[in-house]
Structure formats: C-alpha cells, structure tokens
Write a structure and sequence with these properties.
Layout lengths: L2 H15 L12 E4 L2 E4 L7 E3 L1 H10 L28 H20 L5 H10 L5 H4 L1
Antiparallel strand pairs: 1-2, 2-3
C-alpha cells in the first residue's frame, strides 16, 4: 500500500537476485507480462487477458487459415482421415509453431480450447490437410 515499503522490498530483492542484471519492475493499474495483460483497475479484482497475444497470433496466420468460428473446434476435429494428403514441411513447421502458441494461450487464459489443443498436439508429427484447416 505504501510506496516506500514497496521500494524497500524491491531494493532487497535487487540486492539478493539482481547481482548480474537489475530486476525490472512495473507499477500501475494495468501491466503487461509475458503476453498477458494484468488489469487491477477494479478494486480487489484482477483481470487477466491475452487479447494482444491473440491478435498477433491471428496476424501471423497464412491466408489459407482464415476463417471464423463461434466454438473452439469444429465437429470433425477428432476424425482422422487416413487417406488425407500429408502437409509439406514448411506448413508442418508453421502448424507446430502455432500449436505451441495455443498451448501457452490455453494454459493461461483460454481453458475452453484445451481439448482442441490437446488433440492438435497429437497430430503435430503426422500432419495432414484435414488438421491444417
């Protein structure tokens, strides 16, 4: 609550852990940390969001992945077509990268996508066109 107490604690932490590089600190009612926004604007309440992280991820998508959905996964998510065309290496690398980002997202703020992301994790090594879309 008091700035001098906070400064004192930060100084002690810096002396203990900031030997090679000083600790970075932020103050205020809205903080950015590891892709998350921590909002303390409402008294006794913290709101976590990752809207900017999601926007950056969506901007990274290639045009053949554009689309809109009201649910985290489509009805065909768990259906595996053994005759589907395998993905080229470059698309496979991108898919793997995006699934890793989805893991981070679902662990921090979007638990509603965990089932879909878990299934996509099982497909990373054997990717086909059906999983990509």
């Amino acid at each position: 609550m008091e700035k001098r107490v906070v400064d004192h604690v930060i100084d002690k932490l810096n002396k203990k852990f900031g030997e090679y590089s000083p600790l970075s600190t932020s103050t205020g009612n809205k903080l950015e940390y590891l892709g998350m926004t921590l909002d303390y604007m409402t008294k006794r309440k913290v709101t976590l969001s990752m809207y900017e992280y999601i926007d950056k991820m969506l901007a990274e998508l290639p045009s053949d992945m554009n689309g809109v959905s009201k649910v985290p996964s489509m009805g065909h998510l768990f259906n595996i077509n053994p005759d589907a065309t395998k993905l080229p290496e470059d698309k496979g690398q991108l898919f793997h990268h995006l699934v890793a980002k989805l893991i981070y997202l679902c662990r921090h703020t979007r638990q509603d996508i965990q089932t879909a992301v878990a299934f996509l994790c099982t497909r990373v090594k054997d990717l086909d066109e059906d999983n990509y879309k």
